[in-house]
Amino acid sequence: MSTPGRSSPPDGDAALRAVTGLAARLSGTVVVGIALFVLWQAWPALQAVGPLRFVTDAGWHPLAQPAQFNLLPMLVASVAVTLGAMLLAGPLGLFTAIFMTDYAPPALARLLRGVVELLAGVPSVVYGLWGLVTLVPLLAAWQPPGASLLAGILVLALMILPTMVLASHAAIAGVAAEHRLTVAALGFSCAGSLWGVLLPAARAGLCGALLLSTTRALGETMAMLMVTGNVARMPDSLFAPARTLTANIALELAYAMDRHRAALFVGGLLLTALVLALVRLARGLGCAWRHA
Amino acid sequence: MSIHSLPTTTCAEPVPQTALQALDLTVRYRGRAALRGVNLTVADGSVTALIGPSGCGKTSFLNCINRMTDLIAGCEVSGTLSLFGEDVLTDGSNLLALRRRVGMIFQRANPFPLSIRRNLDLPLREYGIRSASERAGRLEQALRDVGLWREVIDRLDDPALALSGGQRQRLCIARAIALEPQVLLMDEPCSGLDPHATAAIEDLIHGWHGRYTVLIVTHNLAQARRVSDHTAVFWLQDGAGTQVEHGPTGALFAAPRHPVTADYVAGRAG
Amino acid sequence: MRDRLSAVAAWGAAGLVLAAFAWLIGDVLWRGLPGLSWQFLVSAPADAGRAGGIASILLATVWILAIAIGTALPLGLATAVWLAEFGHRQPRLQGHVNHALDVLAGVPSIVFGLFGNAFFAVTLGLGFSILSGGLTLACMALPILVRVTGAGLQAVPAELRQGAAACGLTQWTTLSRLLLPAALPALLAGTLLGIGRALAETAALIFTSGYVDRYPGSVFDSARALSVHIYDLAMNVPGGERNGYASALVLVALILCINLATHALARGWQRSMS
Fold first, then answer.
1. Chain B touching partners, 3 or more CB pairs below 8 A
2. Going by fewer Cβ within 10 Å, which terminus of chain C is more open, N or C?
């Protein structure tokens, strides 16, 4: 009876399998290690303060006596900038991708693709720098203080546009060539074939693109740190300064001690939980997701 | 290596050794049988053609002999298969040694993306031949045996992928015979080659009678008649492939015993 | 009618997006070019970075990248090899590893900062150092390396593997002499992509390699990467915008080079596969 793999491999191959197997196991453990470690660091706060207080305390005043650890204002700010950015970048990114696949002359499409790919790699600090030096003063002239939720939304939208465009483009371009031939043969108009056949066929990939962009937006730290004003209060309007969960951690980690520090780790846990929940949701909805 | 030899009779004609014997060989892919209950004996030094329509398990049969089935996920082989008396299917058998004794030529020529020289040098070195001069000698002999030597002598270091289709296939054959195998498995080696290249390979096979044991899968019935001295017919039975008839080529084509064979060789079925 | 709307929307969107990017890039060029010069690249920062250049920063960045890629590449390559060559024999473990890497790729960078700070800097006692920063970045670059290298290995045609197996070549020989050379462009592309990711990273580095802008003496020294320098000049140094923009320009230029190199590799690879 011959079953795959049940013969004695030469020593070199056995060693190869052992070494690479060890590497694979190590790689698989990294994320688990990170999760456990963050949990361990957050534990003192979860125990001493209790999960409920992280949404019911009077506000975020970790250095006050007694300390207050309400993360809700930051959570709301994070969700608000993400939502706002996605409302802008989602449609814009989709239509730009459609432009690249179906409307642009090939040279222009290639140029646009190159520009978008470059911008996809530009670090968030550069977006933040531009936002801080150029955008925020403009907004301040319109409606002070300038550094606000709106600034965050605009900068974030610009930041995730490249991801949205590239992922959508991949999804649409990946639609089987047969579909395109079919609609051409049936005499569909450009818009008809797009909206009737091609985009629905690319549904899974487009959903994945939306999702990938949303998780990136949620996890953005530096640009938000630089343009949203960093006030740890519940924002009451688009023009109010706010502080995202990510910026909260970045601002205070340097000097936080003991319970304060552990509370920041709780923030990190919350963030990771949000991202994982989004990914789970996406899988459930049948999104096709490829990490580039 | 134990020699499984039949007792000699008082007749002047020596009875040939059995190179390969399959008993009730069955191949399953994820539980579904693709080949079932194959019984076949192949004599040493003979050229046996395996004919029959697509999907009847001929390639699966070949894959069992050099345990290439091990590389296919979910594939299970049962029954007995022995090579010169040794069981091929047992656990613990030395697969690398087996695959050097049993060479395989694929339907599409697959030379390594290396130079012509390295295509042969690499397996020879793997085989344990440390002396560079001995490797060079075997390399030249193998290339001469397939008739490629004169064609490539001045470009041994050029990429093998630059060769024509027929040359590539002959290079693959040279790669296999450089290891001095006992058995050669050929899976439709001439499909996709022009008549000239096909004739060249068929000439090679003619020269191998008595030297190697050859099993060749072919869809070209004329080719089967030309090159083989024995033929085995594969057909679908109960949803799985099996061998329905085998015998000397001339007799099988002239007077087939099984109705399916008769239909197939007459072109009425398959 | 729908056609007209659709076309307007597409052209409009593309135009808007291009305009926004042009504004951004134009701004970076306009504000950054004046500060950029050979002197800028080879002299150390002075006056908290308002004056001088980024030489020590560039050196620190190179060291951090070296540690990051030097750690992640062997680990990632070995993992990719296992997944491609042996993983199918242990499908459950293969699934776990793939899933774990997918999740790792989605973890926000600030969480890496938290982890790196608590684990490498504090628990392992490495403190704020190039080593802490590099190792943290290695964790971040790992998924990309495994993904791209693995894709390269799996793209090697099955016929090559079959031919090698039929010749009785060991898996090690097949891998080292045939598969890895064939997948080399993918390996290089993966490395470049990993470098790009690491270059762009700021949040994780602030809390692991730190802020010191002097020339680093060893990997245990704290040092400042280029992205961190830009952040510092923008937020903490009044009047630092000029050099901040110049630094940003250097960073963007580096990313551009990486992009172009990756493209060239991809083209060359596709040509060799056909």
1. A, C
2. C
- Beta bridge pairs of residue B214: B47, B184
Instruction: List all residues of chain B from 61 to 100 with a beta carbon under 8 Å from chain A.
Output: 64, 67, 69-73, 75-78, 89, 91-96
List of residues 6+ apart from C160 with CB closer than 8 A = B110, B112, B113, C178, C179, C182
What percent of the residues of chain B are helix, what percent strand, and what percent coil, each to the nearest 5?
35, 25, 35
**Domains of chain C as residue ranges with CATH:** 36-273 (1.10.3720.10)
Find the DSSP H helices in chain B: 58-65, 95-101, 116-126, 132-145, 149-152, 165-177, 195-207, 221-227, 249-254, 259-265
Within-domain flag for A55: no
What tokens were used for B113? 């993306």
- Whether B90 has a pLDDT exceeding 60, the answer reads yes
Six-digit token string for A39: 């949990």
Mark residue B239 as left, alpha or beta (left: phi above 0; alpha: psi -120 to 50; beta: remaining).
Answer: left
On whether the CB atoms of residues C257 and C199 are closer than 8 A, the answer is no
Nearest to B78 among A1, A6, A8 (CB): A1
Which positions in chain C touch B114 (Cβ < 8 Å)?
177-178
Rg (CA), chain B: 19
ipTM: 0.87
- Is residue A56, in this structure, part of any structural domain at all? no
Q: pLDDT value at position B218? A: 93
> Between chain B and chain C, how many beta carbons pairs sit less than 8 Å apart?
62
| Close Cβ partners of A30 (under 8 Å, ≥ 6 residues apart) | C100, C104, C139, C142
Asked whether the beta carbons of A265 and A71 are under 8 A apart, the reply is: no
Please report which confidence band the pLDDT of residue A2 belongs to, taking 50, 70 and 90 as the band edges: very low
Whether residue A291 is predicted with pLDDT greater than 50 in this model: the reply is: no
pTM of the full structure: 0.84
User: What are chain A's partners, defined as 3 or more CB pairs within 8 angstroms?
Assistant: B, C
Measured between CB atoms, which of A12, A192, A249 is closest to C114? A249
Q: Which helix (H) or strand (E) holds A223?
A: helix A222-227
Q: Encode pLDDT of A69-83 as tens digits.
A: 888 889 999 999 999
With beta carbons less than 8 A apart as the criterion, state whether A195 and C6 touch: yes
- Would you say residue A59 lies in a domain? no
A285: domain range?
Answer: 72-291
Identify all chain A residues contacting C247, using CB atoms and an 8 Å cutoff. none
Q: Long-range CB contacts (< 8 A, 24+ apart) of B254-258?
A: B258/B233
Q: How far apart are CA C43 and CA B136, in angstroms?
A: 59
Q: Is residue A139 part of a domain?
A: yes
Which CATH number covers residue A192?
1.10.3720.10
- Rg of the Cα trace of chain C? 22
Q: What share of chain C is helix, strand, coil (3-state, %, to 5)?
A: 80, 0, 20
Tokens 């008809």 -> residue:
A192
Look at chain A and report how many structural domains it folds into.
Answer: 1
Which structure tokens are listed for C62?
């190179």
CB atoms within 10 A of CB B266: 11
